[in-house]
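How a chain folds remains the central question behind the approach discussed here. This step matters because it turns folding into a mapping between discrete strings. The sequence in question and its structure tokens are set out directly beneath this paragraph.
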Amino acid sequence: MSVPTVIVHRDADMLAKAVAARVITRTVDAQSAKGSASLVLTGGTVGTATLAEIAASPARDAVDWRNLDVWWGDERFLPDGDPERNETGARRALLDHVDLDPARVHPMRGPDSGMTAEESAEAYVEELRRAARPEDHGPAPSFDVMMLGMGPDGHVASLFPGMPALYDERPVVAVHGSPKPPPVRVSLTLPVIRNSREVWVIVAGEDKAGAVRLALSESGPMQVPAAGARGRQRTLFLLDRAAASKIPSSMSRISSP
């Protein structure tokens, strides 16, 4: 796994703009190298704002949207179109405004599909398996970019401290009893996250500064799940100044204006 690089931006708005530009550049680079790209989306305020910034960017037309695979790191187990679903926010912010191939957009299914959360997780496992290639060395694609938000408790995706999903080796699991509503979710697990080429942990806000510090320290992922969020080739912690406020001064980081 790669050692994290910390990049600090002035505030949450600048963070969303900078991450949007980074997504566009990384996607174009991946498509130039191999013809297609894969991106895993995250929900949350900054995650959704980043997608809106991509939609608003003149540079978005550099992306070959028809050759982009879109996945999700986790989903709230709610009906299709529910405003609390990560998919709903992503579609409103970006996906409905670009020319994606519908067959390459991979939402997690909700209860209106007739599935239980466990069945939804199993269906996503199968979808990942079908998309994986021999060079991915696993039951899921080695995503070009895995975008993750982080909560004040250090959770990423729907992997919360001390919960059974952190110990699960399956690619996707149902999560019950989430400490953050809604209580039922579907989530990728740490093995899939760690098999991504790049993992970006995107965090804004002073309320998350303590968790950022722990995630970049020697803390274990069972106590601080974000401490286990590392990419095979690159790991970025993309922060605003408030979220970075408790990082030790000895830790190397890159600050933008």
The CA atoms of residues 206 and 242 lie 5 Å apart. The chain has a mean pLDDT of 96.
